[in-house]
């Protein structure tokens, strides 16, 4: 078996070839019935998503960013509130906090799992109170697909009256101790951006929760804060609905998602076994199955390493080049006591490898060989 030509970092075409006729038929059904906004596929997808997570409610929305925003709006987050989150994440996690006038407080991450440093949270809460902010919420991020230890986060959050919102944009489908993402935290936001483990063909997102009152609030907020009558506006909301077409596509993709997650697990394990002695591989905690949105290693001389991989036609991407507390728009917000030295070091060391369910075995061996050679140089 020969390695694929033109290795894809994330291959959406192989997946499409597998279910193209089903997707074409699903799109055709929407064009036939013509209910482009909140058509029957939207409720159908929400039922299936809730079932997939064994959760009571799944509410779809226009993006992962809107999913985070809708939850914070429902909880009344605003000026004077402190919301704790890791600095080493995608900008959306902090953006929604700042948009509502609240203050994002940046925590560091662990250097081996890339997950928020839970041990820094209590000091961060005390420090925020000293700055005359009201500690209100914590948004842990399941970075690269690994769900954080929500029980540990929840224990601290409860002591201080914070609510926990899971940013599971990268971890949908993952699990911890046999429970899927969606029921690990009281409320979970996820994204269906095309490159996420479960992606649509545009923007999309969802909120998953057991909390019925919160679910109803979010349903209202995503349609301009509507009351029982569509033209009776009872609160200030947004236009945050998922398109019927995206829901129709996601129903077909969700049908093969469990199989894709198994393939991802398999590939992640093979990478770790084959690379652990030459580069720093990610640590997956006990009892966790990872969704592997990214397979991210650490190297000392990243520029040289990237160049050697590029020369061998192995595509790589750096997530993330700059931690949020160092970015122009976010540098004015507080960092927890102790700072975020791991986030700063990781930004210079991380590199993500090709990862998707259709990465052929021969291609993976090729990637592994190239990395082992690059690491020896
Ligand atoms: C992708 C992502 C988001 C935002 O999702 P969109 O659907 O692109 O709005 C939020 N948080 C994290 C960690 C992400 O990776």
Summarize the structure.
With 377 residues, the chain is α/β, with parallel strands linked by helices. It is 40% helix and 13% strand. The longest helix is centred in the N-terminal third of the chain and has 22 residues, at 12-33.
Report on the structure:
The chain is an alpha/beta fold and 377 residues long. The chain is 40% helix and 13% strand. It has helices at 12-33, 40-53, 64-74, 92-99, 121-130, 150-159, 212-221, 244-254, 257-275, 302-311, 341-349, 361-376, and strands at residues 57-61, 81-86, 103-107, 134-138, 163-167, 175-176, 179-180, 187-191, 205-209, 288-289, 295-298, 350-353. The protein has a seven-stranded mixed sheet, sandwiched between helices. α2 (40-53) packs parallel to α8, α3 (64-74) packs across α7 (212-221) and α9 (257-275) packs parallel to α12. The longest helix is centred in the N-terminal third of the chain and has 22 residues, at 12-33. The mean pLDDT is 96. Pyridoxal-5'-phosphate binds at residues 63-65, 89-90, 92-93, 141, 167, 169-170, 191, 193, 203, 205.
What features would you highlight for this structure?
377 residues, alpha/beta, seven-stranded mixed beta sheet, three-stranded antiparallel beta sheet, 12 helices, 13% strand, binds pyridoxal-5'-phosphate
Strand content: 5-15%
Distance between the first and last residues' Cα: 27 Å
Bound molecules: pyridoxal-5'-phosphate
Low-confidence stretches: none
Summed up, the helix count is 12
Largest sheet: 7 strands, mixed
Side by side, the strands of the main sheet go: 1-9-8-5-4-2-3
Please identify the structural class as seen in this structure: alpha/beta
Work out the number of β strands: 12
Radius of gyration: 21 Å
Q: Give the topology string: H per helix, E per strand.
A: HHEHEHEHEHEEEEEHHHEEHHEH
């Amino acid at each position: 078996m020969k390695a694929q030509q033109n290795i894809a970092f994330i291959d959406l075409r192989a997946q499409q070839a597998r279910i193209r006729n089903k997707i074409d038929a699903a799109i055709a059904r929407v064009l036939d019935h013509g209910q482009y906004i909140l058509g029957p596929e939207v409720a159908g997808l929400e039922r299936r998503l809730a079932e997939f997570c064994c959760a009571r409610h799944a509410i779809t929305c226009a993006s992962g960013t809107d999913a985070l925003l809708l939850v914070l709006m429902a909880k009344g987050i605003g000026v004077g509130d402190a919301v704790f989150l890791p600095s080493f994440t995608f900008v959306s996690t902090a953006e929604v906090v700042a948009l509502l006038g609240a203050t994002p407080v940046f925590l560091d991450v662990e250097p081996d799992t890339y997950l928020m440093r839970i041990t820094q949270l209590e000091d961060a809460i005390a420090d925020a109170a000293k700055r005359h902010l009201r500690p209100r919420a914590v948004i842990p991020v399941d970075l690269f697909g690994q769900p954080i230890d929500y029980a540990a986060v929840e224990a601290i959050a409860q002591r201080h009256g914070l609510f926990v919102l899971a940013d599971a944009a990268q971890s949908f489908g993952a699990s911890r101790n046999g429970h899927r993402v969606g029921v690990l935290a009281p409320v979970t936001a996820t994204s269906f951006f095309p490159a996420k483990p479960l992606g649509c063909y545009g923007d999309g997102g969802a909120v998953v929760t057991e909390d019925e009152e919160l679910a109803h609030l979010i349903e209202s907020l995503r349609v301009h804060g509507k009351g029982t009558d569509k033209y009776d506006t009872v609160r200030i909301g947004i236009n945050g609905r998922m398109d019927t077409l995206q829901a129709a596509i996601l129903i077909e993709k969700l049908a093969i998602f469990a199989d894709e997650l198994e393939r991802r697990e398999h590939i992640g394990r093979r990478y770790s076994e084959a690379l652990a002695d030459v580069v720093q591989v990610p640590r997956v905690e006990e009892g966790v199955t990872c969704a592997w949105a990214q397979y991210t290693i650490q190297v000392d001389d990243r520029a040289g390493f990237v160049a050697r991989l590029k020369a061998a036609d192995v595509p790589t991407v750096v997530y993330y080049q700059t931690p949020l507390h160092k970015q122009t728009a976010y540098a004015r917000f507080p960092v927890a006591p102790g700072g975020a030295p791991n986030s700063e070091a990781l930004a210079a060391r991380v590199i993500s490898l090709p990862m998707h369910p259709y990465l052929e075995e021969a291609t993976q061996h090729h990637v592994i060989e190239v990395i082992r050679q690059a690491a020896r140089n």
